[in-house]
Amino acid sequence: MRTSALHVDLVYVIAILFLKAAVLAALTLLITTFATTNIFTVMVMVFVYFIGHLQATAREYWLQQQGGGWLTRLFLAIVALIFPDLQSFNLVDHVVAGSFIPFAMFLNTAAMGVFYVTVYTLLATVMFYGKEL
What we know:
By secondary structure, the protein is mostly helical. It is built from five helices and no strands.
């Protein structure tokens, strides 16, 4: 049983939650570069949020129902590349359950978050660079 007031796991969770917010902010920035209205941006981001959280469940269901065909796997890989798996950023569930968060799991999730923030920000920069003000 742990007795310290501040667990390392809490620091991991706070960092990952920050990265999750940064990923969503970078994706919002990307969408605003081609969106014409604010309501479109908000609606797309709501859909992206739900897709990101339900992606892992839908992937498991598709692989069980459709089998592991190459076309199904290709489609799921494209969806996973475009939409970040936001469920993997939920390390809070591990802390609440009292389980230990391995450092490798933290690093993998952090690397995925940094990758998505970098890619979305670079794409937004490229798309914005071509626009006239």
